[in-house]
Specification:
It is built from three helices and seven strands, in the order βααββββββα. The chain is α+β, with helices and mostly antiparallel strands and about 140 residues long.
Amino acid sequence: MKSIYHRLLIGAPAETVYNALTTREGLAGWWTPETVALPEEGSISRFAFGPGYFKEMEVVELKPFSLVKWRCIRAFEDWIGTTLSFELQPHNKGTVLLFHHDGWKEYTPEFASCSYDWALFFRSLRFLCETGKGFPYPDFNR
């Protein structure tokens, strides 16, 4: 199986980053405004990206201020069944985010595009956590 992996230092406390990864308001502030999400294990989060396209994630595991894990249940075919984990580690300058998007069957154009887009969205996450303003879809690549 193939994996996307990113590491990012965010100049904000782990609690701020965790809330941005688990609450509707946080996720809408950096990923997509069209978000339905609850910070509860077993819940299903829904993220819309334009008319007729959305992703659904099952919240598999939550460890306050240290881990968020999802399993993709609806999206492009390549995404379905993949797992996404956001590990948060304290750092003297804020929080280190270690991100894994695991379970890709093969390297595909969607895999490459997804890795690039995650990097852009994590820039948005960093800005949201550090300044209070992210660049969610459709503005994430500006």
